[in-house]
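User: Some background: our group keeps a shared notebook of sequences we're curious about, and every so often someone picks one and asks for a predicted structure to add to the entry. Today it's my turn. The entry only has the sequence so far, pasted here. Could you supply the structure so I can complete it?
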Amino acid sequence: MAHEHKLEIFRGLWKFKSNTQKIWGVLAFLCVVTAIEVVLGIMKPEILTDTYFLGMKLLNWIFIILTLVKAYYIAWDFMHLRDEKTALRRAIVWTPIFLVLYLVFILLFEADYVYNVYKDGFVTWNF
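Assistant: Of course. Here's the predicted structure to add to the notebook entry:
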């Protein structure tokens, strides 16, 4: 039994008349987020590259967050997660977000440790 797809995005803030218009709206949103990432990657503002948060530059955190936003929105809209039950949505969305954040945490602390060993330890930079 087929059912109609919702022709709205951002929890009803933007409504469209057809699926084609909705696809273009979603494409526009994803393009804007990608354009922000590209502009920040090219410009690399000093305020974002000189500021550290939890051992990593603020610019890198912004890239990670924007990438997770795009991944979440693609899953939400194109995989029709908004039409599923709450428990399934949370299981599908929050599990990878938790795992990505955990991986980032592990990589940051391990990389910082290795850097400090080479910088302050008995081993010198020999490569």
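Suggested note for the entry: The chain has one domain: 8-120. The CA atoms of residues 10 and 73 lie 9 Å apart.
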